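Operator note (shift B, R.M.): manual run for Pentatricopeptide repeat-containing protein requested after the automated queue skipped it. Running by hand, logging everything below so the morning shift can see what happened. Input copied straight from the record, untouched. If output looks odd, do not overwrite the archive copy; leave it for review.
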Amino acid sequence: MIQLMPKCSSFPTHSLRTTLYPYFSQNLTLFPTFSSSSHQSHPSSEIFKSATKMGSYNLGDLSFYSLIENHAASLDFGSLEEVLHLMKHQRRVFMEKNFIVMFKAYGKAHLPEKALDLFHRMGGEFQCKQTVKSFNSVLNVIVQEGLFDRALEFYNHVIASKTLNIHPNALTFNLVIKAMCRLGLVDEAVELFRDIPVRNFAPDAYTYSTLMHGLCKEGRVDEAVSLLDEMHVEGTFPNTVAFNVLIGALCKKGDLARAAKLVDNMFLKGCVPNEVTYNTLVHGLCLKGKLEKAVNLLNRMVLNKCVPNDVTYGTLINGFVKQGRASDGARVLVSLEERGHRGNEYVYSSLISGLCKEGKFNQAMELWKKMLGKGCKPNTVVYSALIDGLCREGKLNEAREVLSEMKNRGYLPNSFTYSSLMRGYFKVGDSHKAILVWKEMANNNCNHNEVCYSILINGLCKDGKLMEALMVWKQMLSRGIKLDVVAYSSMIHGLCTANLVEQGLKLFNQMLCQGPEVQPDVITYNILLNAFCIQKNISRGVDILNIMLDQGIDPDFITCDIFLKNLRENVNPPQDGREFLDELVVRLVKRQRTIGASKIIEVMLHKFLLPKASTWAMIVQQLSKSKNVQKAISECWSRLSC
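Run finished. Output pasted below as returned.
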């Protein structure tokens, strides 16, 4: 809670003469010498011989104001308190603008409580009436510190105070709306926004942008876009910030067509897109896998004399890596360097990690050497990426050497580093060393997260050490570690492998009762399907398949192979599975899951199991619809990038 009426704080005991001398040494008539023996009263009573009456104003006041500005600029708050104390003792005039200077200094020093304290001292202790200017200054300090609850509390207290009699202005409303939006009180912010014209103020571009951001954060993008239309009607000129807020929200939502229209709208309104606009669009295109469009947009950015920055290139390179095209990302890095930029450690770590995952270890090592040669110092992220790549290649000894070098250079391994080593040792069948890495983590005060636990459980289960895996599972539960899909699936696989299918099914049912982030994936379903097929229990396998479809999980190639093998080996008479897969395609199409259905068709063609003519017609019709939609989206982006 805010202390709305704080007590007067004590003053520092620095030497006033030392503090004031540099500023008043040229005005000897104001500062006559005084002996150290005459200290019965405060020294300041001897400094100014021509004492002033309360409320009077003379040239000495200007000197005090200069002191305030200088001490505020240097954030010397102890000396500021001395000056205020001396001014009060000498009954000098306090001006609001000087307090505003001090409020800004407290904001710069991240001391909002001190600003609040001084605001409440203004009227009583220093006899300086607060107005909306000083009120807004303190409110801004609190908001900039992210103390949004306190900001609203301070606002409500001041506005309700009859003693202060302060009326909010447009700036006040902007600050309060920002605080409300940051707290998720968007409806309250909209209500206050609608009340602004009633108070004879007009919302400005900052007001609209703030409210748009709050609405977009709550997923109310359509309402935010409608505010842009309202701005046009009200004659408020939308700035780049407002457009960027909306473009970012639409890209995040995946609505690239509307984002493209907004960019066109920007040009029509004479509002030039900046690097934030382009970075947002590049990010949106990368999320959709439209990497060529993103490259074209990058070229357009250069043509429009908007210089791409590290964020632009980093986003594009990361997009290529996520699409399994790290080599293309490396070519973007070359383009970056040709234009005078330098790849940072995050770009290199993304590329090195991506190349290693794609099995292009030699290329990753070349990039590593290139990074060192260009003077880009590797950090924990880059070292961890290289260690992960070496572990994927089965080069555990080299990975250990890199880990030693990493430690020697003062970079601490993190959970990802150790997880890569554990996974690597389990992959080569050395579970003993994997467990030693687990213990090494604890000795180095590196926390075991859910990923580490999942790797350990998965490795132990694959190594046939079910009891040890169960012990780790219980430890995970007792410590409150969040169970993820990998941990559940690994444990289910271990139980099914040990012919404890019913226990595995119980864990599966537990997953179904969990939140959306821990729901079974296609790997989990395939584990259970395979277990029931091994037991020659095809009916229970079909039950699991039905749950799989109801939960929105599409079968993959492994799912199909499991059922085809079961129908071929465990059904009398044996079946080739053509009718089974054909029916599966129909069921998926009826559920509007065209991609999943097309994958089953692909499996059928590989197995020379031709679908029925009616099934062909159905799947072709669905694929044609999606292509038309895709064509329309592509045309929108072609107009944007031309």
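Quick read of the result: Confidence is low (pLDDT under 50) at residues 1-57. DSSP finds 34 helices and no strands in the chain.
Leaving this for review. - R.M.
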